[in-house]
């Protein structure tokens, strides 16, 4: 059985009285801005870089693969219950670690 919250929503949006200078309840434009900021911070997956500032995007690289290699990555991802992107990130990290910059 579904409930109709229309009356409660109408009251909250139009008639509810908030304490003056309330820090815990917002209405109108302030509520919309706050909600958008919460969604912006919470949206998406966690940052790959634990030191990244909230909302920062990780750099993106794209690579074309031969079909057979792509299929192997997909099969490995399925077999190890991980994502192809995680496998590729780890492969690149391993490669970079084996080829350090000259001192």
UniProtKB/TrEMBL annotation:
Residue ranges of the region described as Disordered: 1-24, 41-66, 78-103
GO term, biological process aspect, one: regulation of DNA-templated transcription
Name of protein: Ribbon-helix-helix protein, CopG family
Gene3D superfamilies: Met repressor-like (1.10.1220.10)
